[in-house]
Design brief:
Elements: E1 4-5, H1 22-39, H2 52-60, E2 65-69, E3 75-79, H3 83-86, E4 91-92, E5 97-101, E6 107-111, H4 115-119, E7 123-124, E8 143-146, E9 152-155, H5 160-163, E10 168-169
Parallel strand pairs: 1-3
Antiparallel strand pairs: 2-3, 2-4, 5-6, 5-7, 8-9, 8-10
Protein backbone atom coordinates (compact mmCIF):
# COMPACT_ATOMS: atom_id res chain seq x y z
CA UNK A 1 0.00 0.00 0.00
CA UNK A 2 1.42 3.37 -1.00
CA UNK A 3 1.12 5.82 1.91
CA UNK A 4 1.80 9.54 1.70
CA UNK A 5 3.23 10.95 4.93
CA UNK A 6 3.70 14.71 4.85
CA UNK A 7 5.92 16.43 7.38
CA UNK A 8 2.86 17.53 9.34
CA UNK A 9 2.18 13.81 10.14
CA UNK A 10 -1.03 13.61 8.12
CA UNK A 11 -1.37 10.17 6.60
CA UNK A 12 -3.30 9.38 3.43
CA UNK A 13 -3.97 5.76 2.60
CA UNK A 14 -5.63 4.02 -0.29
CA UNK A 15 -8.81 2.64 1.27
CA UNK A 16 -9.87 0.43 -1.59
CA UNK A 17 -8.39 -0.88 -4.82
CA UNK A 18 -10.66 -1.56 -7.78
CA UNK A 19 -10.18 -4.08 -10.54
CA UNK A 20 -11.24 -2.32 -13.74
CA UNK A 21 -12.45 -4.00 -16.88
CA UNK A 22 -13.81 -2.34 -20.01
CA UNK A 23 -17.37 -2.25 -18.69
CA UNK A 24 -16.35 -0.21 -15.62
CA UNK A 25 -13.55 1.76 -17.23
CA UNK A 26 -15.58 3.43 -20.00
CA UNK A 27 -18.20 5.07 -17.70
CA UNK A 28 -15.40 6.17 -15.39
CA UNK A 29 -13.53 7.85 -18.24
CA UNK A 30 -16.71 9.55 -19.45
CA UNK A 31 -17.38 10.79 -15.91
CA UNK A 32 -13.81 12.15 -15.62
CA UNK A 33 -14.05 13.92 -18.97
CA UNK A 34 -17.41 15.47 -18.12
CA UNK A 35 -16.38 16.33 -14.55
CA UNK A 36 -15.26 19.93 -15.13
CA UNK A 37 -18.41 20.63 -17.13
CA UNK A 38 -20.72 19.07 -14.56
CA UNK A 39 -19.03 20.20 -11.37
CA UNK A 40 -17.16 23.31 -12.49
CA UNK A 41 -19.89 25.73 -11.50
CA UNK A 42 -19.95 24.30 -7.98
CA UNK A 43 -16.20 24.68 -7.55
CA UNK A 44 -15.34 28.28 -6.68
CA UNK A 45 -11.75 27.90 -7.98
CA UNK A 46 -12.63 26.16 -11.26
CA UNK A 47 -11.12 28.13 -14.12
CA UNK A 48 -9.64 30.70 -11.72
CA UNK A 49 -6.03 31.51 -11.03
CA UNK A 50 -4.63 31.81 -7.54
CA UNK A 51 -3.87 35.31 -6.30
CA UNK A 52 -0.20 36.27 -6.35
CA UNK A 53 -0.14 36.41 -2.53
CA UNK A 54 -1.51 32.85 -2.35
CA UNK A 55 1.13 31.63 -4.80
CA UNK A 56 3.87 33.26 -2.73
CA UNK A 57 2.58 31.68 0.50
CA UNK A 58 2.34 28.23 -1.15
CA UNK A 59 5.83 28.61 -2.65
CA UNK A 60 7.40 29.71 0.63
CA UNK A 61 5.94 26.74 2.46
CA UNK A 62 7.88 24.49 0.07
CA UNK A 63 11.26 26.22 0.40
CA UNK A 64 13.89 23.79 1.64
CA UNK A 65 11.63 20.77 1.19
CA UNK A 66 11.82 17.81 -1.16
CA UNK A 67 9.43 15.01 -2.06
CA UNK A 68 11.09 11.67 -1.38
CA UNK A 69 10.34 7.96 -1.15
CA UNK A 70 11.67 5.26 1.15
CA UNK A 71 12.74 1.71 0.23
CA UNK A 72 9.10 0.53 0.44
CA UNK A 73 7.91 3.18 -2.02
CA UNK A 74 6.16 5.31 0.62
CA UNK A 75 6.19 8.95 -0.49
CA UNK A 76 6.59 11.89 1.87
CA UNK A 77 7.82 15.46 1.95
CA UNK A 78 10.82 16.32 4.10
CA UNK A 79 13.46 18.99 4.53
CA UNK A 80 16.63 18.82 2.46
CA UNK A 81 18.72 18.57 5.63
CA UNK A 82 16.82 15.51 6.95
CA UNK A 83 19.46 12.94 8.03
CA UNK A 84 17.52 10.13 6.32
CA UNK A 85 17.72 12.02 2.99
CA UNK A 86 21.40 12.86 3.48
CA UNK A 87 22.39 9.27 4.29
CA UNK A 88 20.39 7.86 1.34
CA UNK A 89 17.60 6.16 3.28
CA UNK A 90 15.17 8.50 1.48
CA UNK A 91 15.65 9.20 -2.24
CA UNK A 92 14.03 11.43 -4.84
CA UNK A 93 10.73 10.10 -6.16
CA UNK A 94 12.09 9.64 -9.71
CA UNK A 95 15.14 7.63 -8.59
CA UNK A 96 15.33 4.45 -10.65
CA UNK A 97 12.80 5.74 -13.19
CA UNK A 98 13.30 6.70 -16.82
CA UNK A 99 11.20 8.87 -19.14
CA UNK A 100 10.03 6.74 -22.07
CA UNK A 101 7.59 6.82 -24.95
CA UNK A 102 5.62 4.03 -26.56
CA UNK A 103 5.03 3.42 -30.28
CA UNK A 104 2.14 5.95 -30.24
CA UNK A 105 4.34 8.69 -28.81
CA UNK A 106 2.74 8.63 -25.34
CA UNK A 107 5.32 9.67 -22.75
CA UNK A 108 5.56 8.46 -19.15
CA UNK A 109 7.94 7.26 -16.42
CA UNK A 110 8.75 3.58 -15.90
CA UNK A 111 11.19 1.67 -13.75
CA UNK A 112 14.55 1.40 -15.51
CA UNK A 113 14.36 -2.41 -15.12
CA UNK A 114 10.89 -2.59 -16.72
CA UNK A 115 10.89 -5.51 -19.22
CA UNK A 116 9.07 -3.39 -21.82
CA UNK A 117 11.88 -0.81 -21.70
CA UNK A 118 14.59 -3.48 -21.77
CA UNK A 119 12.92 -5.25 -24.73
CA UNK A 120 12.71 -2.02 -26.73
CA UNK A 121 8.91 -1.70 -26.67
CA UNK A 122 9.44 1.59 -24.82
CA UNK A 123 12.27 3.90 -25.85
CA UNK A 124 13.77 6.97 -24.24
CA UNK A 125 11.76 10.11 -24.94
CA UNK A 126 14.58 11.62 -27.03
CA UNK A 127 15.20 8.51 -29.15
CA UNK A 128 14.94 9.42 -32.83
CA UNK A 129 14.64 13.14 -32.11
CA UNK A 130 17.04 15.50 -33.77
CA UNK A 131 18.72 17.81 -31.33
CA UNK A 132 17.98 21.42 -32.00
CA UNK A 133 20.91 23.58 -32.91
CA UNK A 134 22.27 25.46 -29.97
CA UNK A 135 21.56 29.14 -30.08
CA UNK A 136 24.87 30.97 -29.80
CA UNK A 137 25.30 32.64 -26.45
CA UNK A 138 25.59 36.43 -26.50
CA UNK A 139 28.34 36.03 -23.90
CA UNK A 140 30.49 33.66 -25.96
CA UNK A 141 34.09 34.85 -26.06
CA UNK A 142 33.62 37.25 -23.14
CA UNK A 143 34.31 37.16 -19.42
CA UNK A 144 33.37 39.17 -16.34
CA UNK A 145 35.88 41.81 -15.40
CA UNK A 146 36.14 44.44 -12.66
CA UNK A 147 38.03 47.67 -12.19
CA UNK A 148 39.68 49.04 -9.02
CA UNK A 149 36.39 50.54 -7.81
CA UNK A 150 34.66 47.16 -8.12
CA UNK A 151 32.54 48.06 -11.16
CA UNK A 152 31.92 44.96 -13.23
CA UNK A 153 31.34 44.51 -16.92
CA UNK A 154 31.74 41.89 -19.63
CA UNK A 155 34.84 42.19 -21.83
CA UNK A 156 36.71 40.27 -24.52
CA UNK A 157 40.39 39.35 -24.25
CA UNK A 158 41.23 41.95 -26.89
CA UNK A 159 39.46 44.85 -25.15
CA UNK A 160 41.96 47.75 -24.63
CA UNK A 161 40.73 48.26 -21.05
CA UNK A 162 41.65 44.65 -20.23
CA UNK A 163 44.98 44.81 -22.06
CA UNK A 164 45.94 48.06 -20.29
CA UNK A 165 45.16 46.57 -16.87
CA UNK A 166 42.32 49.00 -16.12
CA UNK A 167 40.03 45.93 -15.79
CA UNK A 168 41.02 42.47 -14.53
CA UNK A 169 39.19 39.15 -14.29
CA UNK A 170 36.52 39.49 -11.61
CA UNK A 171 38.08 36.75 -9.40
CA UNK A 172 41.57 38.26 -9.53
CA UNK A 173 42.88 40.63 -6.88
CA UNK A 174 44.44 44.02 -7.64
Amino acid sequence: MNTYKPVEDYVFESLKTFELDESTLEPLLLHCQAGPKLYGEHNGMYGQKHKESTIQIMSQSKIGKITVKDSDGNICSTTIDDPRYINGQLVGIAKGKIAVKDSNGNKFLVDKHDPRYISGEFVGVNKGEKWKQKVPSPHKGTFLAKNIEGNMCRLTKTDPRYISGEYIHFRSKF
